[in-house]
Backbone:
């Protein structure tokens, strides 16, 4: 999708006024938070696992080139092929090329954030290839022609009623049928998708981990759509970004224990699939061709510097689920595909700070994201780092830069500061005297639009202290 | 050397009684305490808005003003967090200042955490109220303050403490966030106010004036009867006057 990050404030205002969205968000938020808390509390070694997970990722990133090459060798040895894409455009060309070579006209697709990042669906459709999302959430937003609003729950912004309405509009079935229950919605999607699975020429999936030693691709799902997408068509094409690599199967199992618990509060997702190469001569089924497209899209540039920590992200969504800003406005307001704290860091890194300078501002730096991140990514510090870069590059609005500078220069002159604060305390006290608070404040509408300003007592602390020293309390 | 009180710019300007209460409490805890006159602000507004150059200039001034004291006590988790956690990062690569920043960080504590560690200290006061306590995010996550204020409040006679649902969630203040993204902030503070009212408490307490000004301002705008005090005022027996945002008595 075309990024619309610049209109974050307007999108946020719309989201806050959207009652259906607010209902959907309120319902989802408690569920994710409570389930994660229970799952973590039930595992005494969670903190130890977290440390180990972090070490695994740090080690993998420190030797990224080595493990990626090893992965390629292992994939090749198992009969598959690895393709390297520096940019989204290169990745799209590779995918379209494989479709052309294999004559694929019908594509099924599992959930893939890299797929969103390279906008593969519009590219396939423009080339005359029919593509169907097979993850229920992705299928719903494909019908609604919307981007995902959450990295693990793409249709979390929709209510059941809205989903039933979409199904009625798009499925040529009995208009009198009941779509009241979750089960009836799931059953209908399953029936519709089943035919698509059987007809597909090529299946695209994402990857949660890539295993260097075996050339395996690990995928977690709760619906089993990943396996039907990967195994039924003649070609299985995996879209993955390079930081998904880990050295061994053992390493992936550590990260899997963190992933399910952090994401949905599950000890393990319903399906954890391990794909290694195409069908072997003795295998009863599986794809004939196995391709892995590895996307960089600026990630190697992050290896050297403070944002390397961000490459540890395993896309569990815990930071999103616990973020009060996301909880208020939902994912679409963030204007691209990655919402919440991880999106507020990643989007400016991938699209450029010019495009996305507003996102690092969309945080109170409350620190809950870092607290729940299974990979210990210092998200608030990374947001501060982006604010620093925005300020230094003068991408931050001029008015706020000038205000900060003016404040800082006052703070550095204690005698002047005493004078100015004494006057301000007196003035605000007089303005708010009858009520003890101000309902309106010149130049302070940002504050007083939503709340009163408690009025100062009249004397500053230091004025009061000086007075007491002269006259006694 | 005596203990230094870092009053904080918000207490200096909006709520001097928080600073006065801090001095009184530290004396009750057996400390020799003073509030150095050269202090202004810790530099958070500059730091969190990306102006590290200004934040460092302010930080150097704070370090010079406070480094001679054995303890630096702050009636605010976020200002304490600035000195304790962020100065070392800010000065990590500044020759001659890294060690000084580290040394100051090691001696900086949030007020309730400091008081809870003083064996001589127990609040000797009475405040008839049903209160609830909002953990501010920086106190909780940067300074590890959670049990200390609750424990200190147990010695206030007449005070019944009821827990706030989801007290670990942010009130929507976030420094300049609350004016830059006012709509989102309003929604967050509304959620907080709903949770406060659901407790049935008649008083809200907290240890961070930024959060308290935000919540008190929203309570006042919504016409709520819930009163707001900084915990230092209650512990020091100075909660007999007007609460935050109330008409002067």
Residues:
């Amino acid at each position: 999708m075309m990024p619309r990050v610049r209109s974050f404030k307007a999108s946020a205002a719309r989201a806050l006024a959207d009652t259906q969205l607010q209902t959907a968000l309120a319902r989802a938020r408690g569920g994710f938070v409570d389930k994660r808390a229970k799952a973590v509390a039930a595992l005494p070694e969670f903190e130890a696992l977290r440390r180990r997970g972090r070490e695994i990722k740090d080690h993998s990133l420190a030797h990224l080139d080595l493990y990626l090459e090893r992965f390629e060798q292992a994939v090749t040895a198992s009969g598959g092929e690895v393709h390297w894409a520096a940019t989204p455009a290169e990745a799209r060309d590779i995918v379209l090329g494989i479709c052309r070579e294999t004559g694929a006209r019908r594509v099924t697709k599992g959930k893939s954030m890299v797929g969103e990042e390279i906008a593969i669906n519009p590219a396939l459709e423009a080339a005359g290839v029919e593509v169907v999302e097979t993850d229920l959430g992705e299928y719903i937003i494909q019908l609604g022609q919307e981007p995902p609003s959450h990295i693990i729950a793409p249709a979390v912004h929709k209510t059941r009623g809205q989903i039933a309405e979409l199904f009625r509009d798009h499925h040529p079935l009995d208009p009198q049928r009941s779509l009241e229950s979750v089960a009836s919605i799931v059953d209908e999607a399953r029936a519709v998708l089943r035919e698509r699975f059987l007809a597909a020429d090529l299946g695209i999936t994402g990857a949660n981990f890539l295993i260097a030693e075996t050339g395996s691709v690990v995928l977690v799902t709760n619906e089993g759509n990943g396996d039907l997408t990967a195994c039924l068509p003649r070609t299985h094409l995996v879209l993955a970004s390079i930081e998904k690599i880990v050295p061994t199967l053992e390493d992936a199992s550590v990260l899997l224990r963190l992933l399910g618990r952090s994401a949905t509060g599950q000890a393990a997702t319903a399906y954890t699939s391990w794909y290694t190469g195409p069908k072997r001569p003795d295998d009863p089924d599986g794809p004939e061709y196995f391709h892995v497209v590895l996307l960089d899209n600026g990630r190697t540039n992050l290896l050297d510097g403070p944002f390397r920590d961000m490459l540890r992200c395993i896309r569990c969504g815990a930071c999103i689920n616990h973020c009060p800003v996301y909880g208020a406005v939902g994912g679409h307001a963030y204007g691209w595909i990655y919402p919440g704290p991880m999106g507020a860091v990643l989007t400016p890194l991938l699209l450029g700070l010019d495009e996305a300078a507003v996102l690092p501002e969309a945080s109170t730096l409350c620190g809950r994201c870092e607290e729940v991140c299974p990979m210990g990514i210092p998200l608030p510090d990374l947001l501060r780092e982006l604010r620093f870069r925005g300020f230094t590059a003068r991408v931050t609005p001029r008015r706020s830069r000038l205000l900060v500078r003016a404040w800082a220069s006052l703070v550095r002159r204690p005698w002047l500061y005493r004078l100015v604060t004494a006057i301000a305390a007196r003035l605000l006290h007089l303005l708010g005297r009858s009520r003890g608070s101000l309902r309106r404040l010149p130049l302070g509408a940002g504050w007083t639009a939503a709340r009163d300003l408690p009025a100062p007592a009249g004397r500053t602390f230091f004025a009061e202290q000086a007075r007491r020293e002269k006259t006694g309390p | 050397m005596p203990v230094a009180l870092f009053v904080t710019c918000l207490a200096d300007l909006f709520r001097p009684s928080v600073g006065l209460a801090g001095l009184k409490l530290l004396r009750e805890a057996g400390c020799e305490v003073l509030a150095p006159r050269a202090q202004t602000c810790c530099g958070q507004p500059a730091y969190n808005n990306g102006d590290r150059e200004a934040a460092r200039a302010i930080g150097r001034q704070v370090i010079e003003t406070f480094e001679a004291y054995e303890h630096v006590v702050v009636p605010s988790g976020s200002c304490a967090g600035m000195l304790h956690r962020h100065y070392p990062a800010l000065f990590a690569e500044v020759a001659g200042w890294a060690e000084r920043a580290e040394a100051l960080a090691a001696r900086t504590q949030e007020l309730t955490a400091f008081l809870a560690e003083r064996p001589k200290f127990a609040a000797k006061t009475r405040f008839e109220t049903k209160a609830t306590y909002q953990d501010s995010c920086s106190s909780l996550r940067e300074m590890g303050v959670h049990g200390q204020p609750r424990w200190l409040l147990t010695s206030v006679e007449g005070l019944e403490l009821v827990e706030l649902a989801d007290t670990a969630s942010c009130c929507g203040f976030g420094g300049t966030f609350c004016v830059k993204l006012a709509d989102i902030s309003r929604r967050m503070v509304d959620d907080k106010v709903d949770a406060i009212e659901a407790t049935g408490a008649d008083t809200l307490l907290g240890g961070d004036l930024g959060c308290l000004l935000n919540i008190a301002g929203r309570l006042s705008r919504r016409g709520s009867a819930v009163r707001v005090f900084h915990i230092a005022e209650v512990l020091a027996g100075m909660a007999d006057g007007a609460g935050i945002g109330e008409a002067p008595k």
Chain B has a mean pLDDT of 96. Chain B has 13 helices and eight strands. Residues 45 and 175 of chain B are 7 Å apart (CA to CA). The first helix of chain B runs from residue 9 to 14.
